[in-house]
Design goal:
10 helices, three-stranded antiparallel sheet, alpha+beta, Nucleotidyltransferase, domain 5, 351 residues
Length: 351
């Protein structure tokens, strides 16, 4: 029986579409040229530049594409960050990084999860986007390397602060197992003077562990103090977009140096925010009557809130109420733009 062959390119396009499933040691490549064309799947070593270029060339020949045919690719945001995106674009590949939470999954059935299934799913969604379908997924905005590096300052402070809190909680937890409660600060804490529930000194093993934890807490406290100073030095830099924006934010009552640098480095200095709707779409927005809030989330999943309070004379019925309503951000900006926040009316001794 003679085999029947079909022209590979008949139901596809002149573009090679590629999805990548990234793992620590290997990558899975899934290629096609259209919805009706069976994909070509290969596994390569992670970051193998020569192998990737060769596989793309093989895929173009397999689908009958010219050597200079464009390539569009996608991969799911994860531990590899953005270096893979920059690496791909260096070869002239049009790549997008997909927000993993926006990838649709079946809700009624158990979802099998393998690199092969995920690779084909991503490829199918990429083809739908290429076909003009909207709302298929959410794409992560990739910052420049300079913008990404600028964000480490605020994130380092947040990480050190979190580590310091965990160290304090471990110390208090260990003491709690012996019926000991420490009120207030742990500064200058002396393990040798602690007495347990029976009035006796703590056992040597516990003392040594607490001593190590106290040393860790001291080191983290010193690091946190250094992190508190660095944003002030950063905003003094000349010809720096984020520094200029942080200085302007610092003029708003209620925003300190750390918050000003956080907002500037995480949002305003590199995100292409064209209108109030896009600003609110970072994670959400809401009106609570006398206060207006925009909520944002950094790539690490940490959420924060930018809140503005109406002048006290305009609180009216909201003085003792805080409803949750939809925020008309463009309208609020048009009405209250240039007006100082009411935070300056709150006496410091009442905070």
């Amino acid at each position: 029986m003679a085999a029947t062959t079909h022209a590979t390119q008949s139901s596809g396009s002149q573009t090679l579409f590629l999805s990548l499933e990234l793992a620590k040691s290997t990558w899975r490549l899934t290629c096609s040229i259209g919805p009706g064309v069976a994909p070509r799947e290969r596994r390569i070593a992670a970051g193998a530049e020569a192998v990737l270029i060769a596989e793309l060339a093989h895929a173009k020949r397999r689908f009958g594409l010219p050597e200079d045919a464009p390539v569009r690719s996608c991969y799911e945001a994860g531990r590899d960050g953005f270096w893979v995106h920059r690496w791909l674009t260096r070869f002239g590949i049009e790549n997008v990084v997909v927000d993993s939470s926006s990838i649709e999954v079946p809700r009624r059935a158990r979802r099998a999860k393998t690199d092969r299934i995920d690779g084909r799913k991503l490829l199918a969604m990429l083809l739908r986007v290429a076909g003009g379908e909207r709302g298929v997924w959410k794409v992560v905005h990739v910052p420049s390397e300079a913008d990404e590096d600028r964000r480490h300052l605020a994130r380092t402070r947040r990480a050190v602060k979190s580590d310091r809190t965990r160290a304090m909680n471990r110390i208090r937890g260990l003491l709690g197992t012996q019926g000991v409660s420490v009120a207030g600060s742990l500064r200058g804490f002396d393990v040798t003077r602690v007495r347990g529930w029976n009035g006796q000194p703590l056992w040597p093993g516990l003392q040594r562990r607490l001593t190590r934890e106290c040393a860790t807490l001291t080191a983290l406290t010193q690091q946190l103090r250094a992190c508190e100073v660095q944003p002030r030095a950063a905003v003094r830099r000349e010809h720096e977009v984020a520094a200029d924006q942080a200085r302007r934010l610092r003029r708003v009552n209620g925003i300190g140096w750390n918050a000003a640098w956080l907002y500037a480095s995480e949002i305003f200095s590199w995100r292409a925010i064209r209108n109030g709707r896009e600003l609110g779409a970072l994670t959400g927005e809401s009106s609570h009557g006398a206060t207006k809030s925009v909520y944002a989330q950094d790539p690490d999943g940490n959420e924060f809130e930018v809140m503005w309070m109406l002048p006290q004379a305009h609180w009216g019925e909201y003085e003792n109420a805080a409803p949750v309503e939809r925020l008309d951000l463009p309208g609020e900006v048009a009405r209250w733009g240039g007006t100082r926040t009411a935070a300056e009316l709150v006496p410091l001794d009442t905070v």
